């Protein structure tokens, strides 16, 4: 009772319940037990290795030091536009390869996969060869994917359990809420990971380090913003050269003005889509653009394109002004048409 699991034990536990627990009783017991006890880095690492066992890996002919994922834990309490998705287009337009995990809406009006669908961008599934994802990264420098969609047969029990939990309205914190996107099947050295609470920041930073990432920023913004914030303080845990550093950032440290919360909020699905496109098209010159820019700027910083976060923001703002982000979106849509319409 209350004993921590080893990495091997946690991996085997998630393997077993994922493969054989069709009703979800053991899954509930396992996840509730871990969260009641308090998950460890080793247990979350075992959880991530279960992900690896189900998804496998995808080899890409790109230097891992130039690849980044900027997916996070979600749970944004403010309801902003899809910041990390928009920032992904900025990074790709600036020459950084982005392999971004995405999902449907959880707390916002549109999740990353929802906004992509609206824009006519497909998220690859098992019905599409995995080399499509690889080719997208190598050709356009950008790809979006969902782990469960890559191997739906391997996640069928989990998805069945999740639907059941929604039906009976049983809600509690899961290891998935902490580390669902921590593992990436694509080899890379860089991660920007946003969380809506500071509670698990240290746990996540150490987990990402154990997973082999070299440059990491785990961030939590003001009022539960799961991104770098332009409305107030951002708490940061950064890993660089094997060392972990904790510090705070203010909007002026990142090169933007302090905004009000209402300036970065959206209030409907339709408004979210409109704001998203306006930012990428260079039409938005306000707080929503700045929010995207500071998060893209952190990606430029982590991948070594710039030396400071403020320089990263400036580069991102220049790219948004040039409309190269919109061109990158059009490039991805054209690439997908050449693949899917064959």
Strand order, sheet with most strands = 3-2-1-4-5-6-7
**Biggest β-sheet: count, sense, barrel?**
7 strands, mixed
What is the CATH C level class of the domain at 64-146 and 186-340, in words?
Alpha Beta
Give the termini distance in whole angstroms: 56 Å
Q: Which structural category fits the helices and strands? A: alpha/beta
CATH topology of the domain at 64-146 and 186-340: Pyrimidine Nucleoside Phosphorylase, Chain A, domain 2
Instruction: Provide the CATH superfamily of the domain at 64-146 and 186-340.
Output: Nucleoside phosphorylase/phosphoribosyltransferase catalytic domain
Taking all Cα atoms into account, the compactness measure Rg is 19 Å
Helix content: 40-55%
Rounded mean pLDDT is: 90
Number of helices: 16
Strand content: 5-15%
Q: Give unreliable regions as ranges.
A: 105-109
CATH architecture of the domain at 64-146 and 186-340: 3-Layer(aba) Sandwich
Q: What's the shape?
A: globular
Order of helices and strands: HHHEHEHHEHHHEHEEEHHHHHH
Number of strands: 7
């Amino acid at each position: 009772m209350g004993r921590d699991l080893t990495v091997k034990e946690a991996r085997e536990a998630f393997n077993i319940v994922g493969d054989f627990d069709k009703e979800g009783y053991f899954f509930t017991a396992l996840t509730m037990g871990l969260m009641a006890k308090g998950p460890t880095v080793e247990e979350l690492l075992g959880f991530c290795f279960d992900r690896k066992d189900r998804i496998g890996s995808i080899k890409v002919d790109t230097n891992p030091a130039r690849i980044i994922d900027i997916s996070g834990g979600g749970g944004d309490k403010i309801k902003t536009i899809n910041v990390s998705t928009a920032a992904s287009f900025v990074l790709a337009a600036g020459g950084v390869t982005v392999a971004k995990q995405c999902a449907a809406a959880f707390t916002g009006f549109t999740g990353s996969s929802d906004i992509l669908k609206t824009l006519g961008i497909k998220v690859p599934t098992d019905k599409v060869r995995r080399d499509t994802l690889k080719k997208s990264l190598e050709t356009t420098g950008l790809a979006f994917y969902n782990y469960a969609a890559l191997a739906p047969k391997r996640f069928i029990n989990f998805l069945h359990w999740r639907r059941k939990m929604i039906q009976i309205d049983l809600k509690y914190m899961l290891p998935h809420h902490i580390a669902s996107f921590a593992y990436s099947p694509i080899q890379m050295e860089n991660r920007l990971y946003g969380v809506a609470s500071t509670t698990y920041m240290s746990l996540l930073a150490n987990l990402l380090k154990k997973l082999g990432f070299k440059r990491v920023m785990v961030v939590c913004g003001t009022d539960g913003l799961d991104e770098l914030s332009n409305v107030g303080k951002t708490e940061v845990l950064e890993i660089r050269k094997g060392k972990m550093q904790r510090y705070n950032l203010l909007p002026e440290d990142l090169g933007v003005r302090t905004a009000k919360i209402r300036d970065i909020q959206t209030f409907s699905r339709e408004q979210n889509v409109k704001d998203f496109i306006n930012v990428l098209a260079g039409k938005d010159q306000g707080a929503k653009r700045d929010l995207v820019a500071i998060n893209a700027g952190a990606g430029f910083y982590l991948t070594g394109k710039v030396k400071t976060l403020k320089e990263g923001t400036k580069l991102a703002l220049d790219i948004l002004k040039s409309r190269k982000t919109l061109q990158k979106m059009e490039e991805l849509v054209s690439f997908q048409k050449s693949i899917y319409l064959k």
